[in-house]
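Look over this record as teaching material.
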Amino acid sequence: MHFNAAFWIPATIFSVTAGVSVIVGEKFKRTQESLLRKQEEVEHLAALAERERIARDMHDVLGHSLSVITLKAELARKLFDRDRDACKKELIDIEHAARVALSEVRTALTGYRSTGLAHELHSAQEALAAAQVIMTQEIASVALTPMTENVIALALKEATTNIIRHAHASVCHIRLTEDPEQITFSIKDDGIGRKNFSIHKQGNGLMGMSERVASLGGRLIIEAEQGMTLMLQFPNKTSAKG
């Protein structure tokens, strides 16, 4: 059977068009499914990252606050039979520290932290004084981005907690400087150094600190033989823009 051109040309065009439409439709469907799967993966990874952020913040906030509360509770117990007025003052400080800790936990859970470096320097000085550690500071006027300031503040909180718990130090020196290339923040104590120190053998605190610094393109340097020195270095993006 032979068909004339008036039949097979439109039939061929229709068949090819229909076939192409089916193929394109199938590819579009597969692409859409792939995009949905990737979107689900991204959402899952974002949820994991958020949980890790919250876990790090909870460790930093509660570790520091509970160390201060523990120290002051021990001091209040010792003062109870000797000096009721001093004991009462320590109990008031404990109540204040607990309220601050609760506020910081709520703040961390919302993903926003209103306290900056100045607040953490003041808190560190009070906490170290309670542990009979003298804190000195050399803080240059540096224009910090909010993210960099937040990472430095959290590092200071973690370092203060470690000094109180483990260092047996008498002096702690805190320094913030900048040059055209980088911003450097360091915390040095004169306590017990640890030879063969490895950050990978430590708890979540220092690992979390290292991850935060790295996320901003910086690096964390730890020297642990004569006391402990934590040095955070960040690219000086503000200076580069100038």
